[in-house]
Amino acid sequence: MFRNWLRAPGRVRTLADGDLENAVRLMRSHPLTSLLAAQNLGYLGAGSQMLGIDGEDGLLAACWAGSNIVPVGSGEAIEPFSAFLRKRGRRASSIVGDADLVLPMWSLLETTWGPARDVRGNQPCLVIRARSAMEPDRRVRRAEAADVDLLLPASIAMFKEEVGYDPTRAGSGYNQYVRSLVSNGRAYIVIDRIDGREAVVFKADIGALWDGVAQVQGVWVHPDLRGKGFGTAAVAAVVADILTFAPTVSLYVNWYNTGARRVYEKVGFEQEATYATILL
């Protein structure tokens, strides 16, 4: 009786170990827009931050509610998820995922969580599943521990441009994140000389990887090298390497970033979904 009450249709609950199979099935039905939530499925159980709502026929929707909010599944779940999150209070720094879920969620949360630092309501989610026809830059390689001191300034510069503030102002968490990307083989770089000094002139990360889908994040080209075709060849090289272990490479980009979108189009990416991001 108690278990049935917990799983009443429309009621928000925390997903447990026993929900893994159904949660995986739900995430696989939205492979591109669920990725940022799906990579956390290994943390179901006590203390889990994965919320769920059951329908009449099983798990209707899920929502990762950690440092960011990532809704997945049916739009019917947005109102109860939003009510739950309003009551719990704002703990996240962003809401991100399928635009058809994120934007309605924000419309319900804005009065209590707002104003947002930025609303990015149209972010094409692009995909490539074969090597680019563009010649890859052979200098692109995975970063190693010895590269961290050069990578950190480039990563911080990228973050400032993309998000609008210095990620190191709140402590050492961002530096640790960059180091973890390197140690896990998820950071790509090109090192060259700028003003007579060695520097990272290109970087890209695998920000999420789950079920054969890799999401590229943090793509950055040194300002002195932009607009010269350098980024296209570097991204093509990143794609070629990722395809050796993941059959689908994805990323999402702001619709107004025409320069980046041209690069990705030249590499061979095509749009298959649309993200939205609310920066809190």
Q: What would you say this structure looks like, in words?
A:
This protein has 280 residues and is of the alpha+beta class. 34% of the residues lie in helices and 31% in strands. The chain has a twelve-stranded mixed sheet, with helices on both faces. 38% of the residues are buried.
Using the CA coordinates, give the radius of gyration.
20 Å
Helicity, in percent?
25-40%
Unreliably modeled segments: none
The biggest beta sheet reads: 12 strands, mixed
Q: Could you tell me the number of beta strands?
A: 12
Number of helices: 9
The helix-and-strand class reads: alpha+beta
Distance between the termini: 40 Å
* Mean model confidence by pLDDT: 94
Shape: globular
Q: Order of strands in the sheet with the most strands?
A: 1-2-3-4-5-12-6-11-10-9-8-7
Q: Could you spell the SSE succession in H and E letters?
A: HEHHEEEHEHEEHHEEEHEHE
β-strand percent reads 25-35%
